[in-house]
Amino acid sequence: EREGGKKQKMGQKQSREKLLYQHVVNGNVGGIRTLSTQGASLEWKDKGGRTPLIVASKNSRLYDVARTLIELGANVNAFSKGHQRGTPLHYAAKAGLQETVALLLSHGANPFVKNSKHETPLDVARKNERHAVVREIEGRICYFAGQMREVFGPGFSDASAPQFSSRVIWVVIVPRSSSNPPRRPRLEFVIYPTPQDAEPRKILCLRKCKIKGPNFQQPSSALIIFDKRNKTRYKFTSVTEGDKQQLRRLYNACKGISQVTQALTQVSSEPVAPPLKLPEMASASLYTSSSPCRLSPWMTTRSNICMKSPRLHNNHCSTAESWITPNQSPPHMGSHEEPNIGSPVVQTPERFSAPLSPAPSAPPLTYDDLSSPIPGTQSEASALVVMEDDKLGSSNLCIICWEASVEGACVPCGHMPGCMSCLKEVKVKNGVCPVCRSDIDQVIKLYGV
Asked: In its keyword annotation, does this UniProt entry include Ribonucleoprotein (predicted)?
């Protein structure tokens, strides 16, 4: 009798989960909620190894079902074991469901998980030419995204060209894996013909490249990347002649300093999900906009920021060109604010509402010899520089406003990220340390001895 009762209960439980799965297929949100409250598991898998959330994530009609399942606690990183192994994000990316992709990313879906074919969701979206999904995922993880001008001709990019010419391209710098400090992410320099293209024209692994930084004292500055694998040089300048800020942002991103300033445009006319609210201030590298941005919980603080800024820092310049080995350049933990400079604005969804023209997102690198102009050119030996871990992040300026000196510390973590006024504002608004994201109990002022 006991065994029979036990089997009956097991059968009831299994049928309840199958019924929930059927409600998912039929889009019955009410039935899903009812069965969930009765104890039905949200992780039951069908013969193909798909969970209810995976089924909902591959169908545009089931967006509300996917949102309901996530609200009820479904695993957004569940991995199917069928012939098309992958997470819900892989399935949504393949189907080109931008809304569902945004929903999953906003609730912690990891965009770096690889399926059975060793493809990330971004790879899947590119392969299936889902440009809206490509822009969505890149917008969550990129260090830089914007238009640049590529110079090609003899010795650059296309050696067969008889003379030098240029073309406007869309450049995105993205990591291949999540950032786990102190390990530096593997960054890729991705070149698209236009923002409407899903498939890259060229992908450069920055660890396999040498980067020659721009000389901002020259009127026509350029960033040169030498791909050591195929012995090819690439030359990039700003779209607008003489605009050094966009070039500076690209250069900093190549060194692992996030420069995301909402330059991404959403070229698709597909509707998007309503944006989620985030604290007005976060920490580390940049995601600047006049409207809140949405960030995935798995991302480290270096990639997360939503801020506004009172002024630009555009009067700094670099003294000389320098070779930087990307895999030796430490990440910079800092944030900077910037204003709306009245640039032409492209109509975009709220989370990607931003001007296309370049805007500074981090203060330029400072050098000890900037006190006076340096005439002439520097020797070739001085042009070779390898950035060590103690070079970046050594500024004593507040990493929030980049104006006042560091004078406050967060308790109990002990980090000293900024001035007292900024730290007090951070404590009031979101109450977490801008460096480590731990809770702030109090902010104390430090005095030099």
From this structure: no
